[in-house]
Amino acid sequence: MDSSKKSWEKRLAGERDPMTVDFVESLSYDNRLYKYDIVGSIAHAQMLAEQKLITKAEFKAIKDGLIEISKEITEGRFKFDKTYEDIHMAIEAALVAKIGEPGMKLHTGRSRNDQVATDIRLWMRDEIEVLQSKINALQKAFVKLAGKYAKDVMPAYTHLQRAQPVVIAMYLLSFVEQLKRDFVRLKNCRKMLKISPLGSGAIAGSTLPLDSESTAKQLGFSDISYNSIDATSDRDFCAEFIFDCALIATHLSRLAEDWIIYSSEEFAFVRIDDSHCTSSSMMPQKRNPDVLELIRAKTAGVYGSLMAMLTLLKAQPSGYNRDLQEDKIHIFSAADTVKASLDMAQAVVSRVKFDTKKISTGLEEGFLDATALAEYLVGKGIAFRQAHGIVGSLVAYCEKAEKKLADLTLDQFKEYSPLIDKDVYESIGVANVVAKYATEGAAGTRQAKEQIAYWKKQLAK
Length: 461
Known about the structure:
The chain has helices spanning 18-24, 27-30, 34-50, 56-74, 87-99, 101-104, 112-148, 168-191, 212-218, 228-233, 236-262, 290-314, 327-351, 356-361, 370-379, 384-401, 410-414, 430-436, 445-459; strands at 153-158, 161-167, 195-196, 223-224, 270-271, 353-354. By secondary structure, it is mainly alpha-helical.
């Protein structure tokens, strides 16, 4: 066999246009699947030997040859030739060149359609574990940082307006919760990868006595596909994987947005380490949080990959279509971007500092204790809506008088409600408020200590 000539080209007349070669090749990006293609091929060859479709000697030659090729690729000694279109044919051609006729038997009962569907699942299975390890590292960085600020208070915002006081640690742990959901989503996505499509062939399976359960077991799949038509064209898991990546990127972007704002002179709540900032080519005083801006920006690319994947799938007729070759561009891009962003976020979180002195000087601004005062009135038997109105009137008065709620005398309080007593001063002021938060998961000092201890234990598992 001429290894430079692909078998299906015998069906076509003449030489292929070089433009066509460039247009249809995917080797330039799917070469990263080589390990999974080789592992899948060895499993397939072993099954062929078990079914006596090839001899044991042929299987040994195939296995040894594939292992050699894997080593050559790993060491950078393998020459990739785009005329073979993809990693599957590049490896097969190299195998035939290396061991001769036994290499021609490797593709028995197999199509590139079920082959690539298997490779992607194997790659994604490992990639999810990599992403989960990076999520875990970022969570640990947040928990460690939270431990430094378990008693310090900052304003929390709704509508980007001051809302209520919170312990800084609980603010930081809110991102740990988001990342937990990301971790679980990836775990659920990985469960969808347990089905082996190998044995489905091009679309209809094979007339040969293949043993799909054998290859599934060898490759660590827990089950096989029971519909070859669906198995070769299923890329639902790719869309789900990119969606999971998109939500990770969303959470990182929200973090970046917060700290871009908080690191500005107007806020000055946090200081991003110099090693993660850049300066201006014109303005020498600038410390720009460029890495956070780029985390925010790169989210757009992950969203683009998700939309591209969904669009690619939406008009596919049944069965495999060459459109699906493009799936790898989008899953690889999403995974690479999110991995880099997780690493960068972990580095930033590990070195960031909160300026608690600066934060504390303005803590009593913005009536952060107004809700606590309304709840104090509820404790006195006043309906919440009525209490809400009373406190709203008090706040309006304080704004005109340029006072804080804690500045009011008891007599002034009683003008708005006779039920207010001297114990009111135990419920207002940010320090009192965060100490009085009672609900589980509230942003108070007690809850912060409990949650830090909980997450240290959870993340150590």
